[in-house]
């Protein structure tokens, strides 16, 4: 009699993750997640609107401050000038600046507090103004953090981030059928928008089988908040050790 051979171990189904970043930022992240073996869906919580305006006046500017890759993109649409050093909030923003043609780029590899610290270390308040290229809504008080050290910061609004009005049918179906394992949140605003749309769609309870992966404690706070009705019932809320994309991805389960 032929001895029965043991069955090979079954591979677990791929983890399905939802990326909530704007389309411009989602594409490279999706490629990276898929290369790691995850199934990925995209549900942008914000859409970028590039604002028209004059070329920025850099006559008194010693450095450009970017707190998102979208700020870099907005600046690049306004002007071809790349003759000022760049201070970027994080590595992804720094990569966007280098890709846009800037030669002098420094990354704070963190949040606005880390960026303020790098500016203090590298810049002289007497050397000129700092130009912060930003959206219509910003997180953190960068100007306030630097004013105490004598820096003058001018904020130039070059884009608007418009919140999504509804969840897609695909995302709603993933949630209703427990086919979604985790959601990635990179900003308090995107997390708050997602929670709001879940509530409007009556899908809050569907989050009990979903993990929320958050870039920072502030993002996690927004993901937990449920409009004064307690906390969102996520299966878990995980926070990156550092406010960087690589640190956030370290939280993800190993793909099967």
Summed up, what is this model?
This protein has helices at residues 23-35, 69-78, 91-99, 112-122, 142-147, 169-176, 188-201, 217-224, 245-249, and strands at 16-19, 39-42, 46-50, 61-66, 86-88, 105-107, 129-135, 153-163, 182-185, 211-214, 236-239.
Question: How does the SSE layout of this entry go?
Answer:
Blueprint: E1 16-19, H1 23-35, E2 39-42, E3 46-50, E4 61-66, H2 69-78, E5 86-88, H3 91-99, E6 105-107, H4 112-122, E7 129-135, H5 142-147, E8 153-163, H6 169-176, E9 182-185, H7 188-201, E10 211-214, H8 217-224, E11 236-239, H9 245-249
Parallel strand pairs: 1-2, 1-9, 4-5, 4-7, 5-6, 7-8, 9-10, 10-11
Antiparallel strand pairs: 3-8
Comma- or semicolon-separated keywords:
alpha/beta, five-stranded parallel sheet, disordered N terminus, 256 residues, Uroporphyrinogen-III synthase, uroporphyrinogen-III synthase activity, UROS/Hem4, Rossmann fold, elongated
Overall description:
By secondary structure, the chain is of the alpha/beta class. The protein has two domains: 16-45 and 164-250, Rossmann fold (3-Layer(aba) Sandwich), CATH 3.40.50.10090; 48-162, 3-Layer(aba) Sandwich (Rossmann fold), CATH 3.40.50. Helices cover 33% and strands 21% of the residues. It has helices at 23-35, 69-78, 91-99, 112-122, 142-147, 169-176, 188-201, 217-224, 245-249, and strands spanning 16-19, 39-42, 46-50, 61-66, 86-88, 105-107, 129-135, 153-163, 182-185, 211-214, 236-239. The strands form two sheets. It has a six-stranded mixed beta sheet, sandwiched between helices. Strand 7, helix 5 (142-147) and strand 8 form a beta-alpha-beta unit. It is elongated. The two termini are 35 Å apart.
């Amino acid at each position: 009699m032929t001895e029965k051979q043991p069955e090979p171990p079954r591979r677990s189904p791929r983890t399905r993750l939802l990326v909530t970043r704007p389309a411009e930022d989602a594409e490279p992240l999706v490629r990276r997640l898929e290369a790691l073996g995850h199934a990925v869906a995209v549900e942008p919580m914000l859409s970028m609107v590039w604002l028209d305006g004059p070329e920025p006046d850099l006559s008194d500017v010693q450095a450009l401050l970017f707190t998102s890759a979208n700020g870099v993109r907005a600046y690049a649409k306004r002007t071809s000038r790349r003759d000022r050093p760049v201070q970027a909030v994080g590595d992804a923003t720094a990569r966007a600046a280098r890709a846009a043609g800037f030669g002098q780029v420094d990354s704070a590899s963190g949040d606005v507090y880390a960026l303020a610290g790098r500016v203090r270390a590298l810049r002289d308040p007497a050397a000129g103004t700092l130009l912060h290229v930003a959206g219509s809504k910003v997180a953190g008080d960068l100007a306030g953090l630097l004013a105490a050290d004598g820096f003058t910061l001018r904020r130039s609004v070059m884009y608007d981030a418009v919140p999504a009005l509804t969840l897609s049918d695909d995302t709603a179906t993933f949630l209703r059928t427990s086919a979604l394992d985790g959601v990635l949140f990179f900003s308090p605003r995107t997390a708050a928008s997602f929670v709001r749309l879940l509530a409007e769609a009556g899908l809050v309870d569907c989050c009990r089988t979903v993990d929320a992966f958050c870039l920072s404690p502030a993002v996690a706070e927004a993901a937990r908040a449920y409009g004064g009705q307690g906390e969102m019932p996520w299966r878990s809320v995980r926070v990156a050790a550092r406010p960087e994309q690589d640190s956030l991805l370290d939280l993800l389960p190993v793909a099967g």
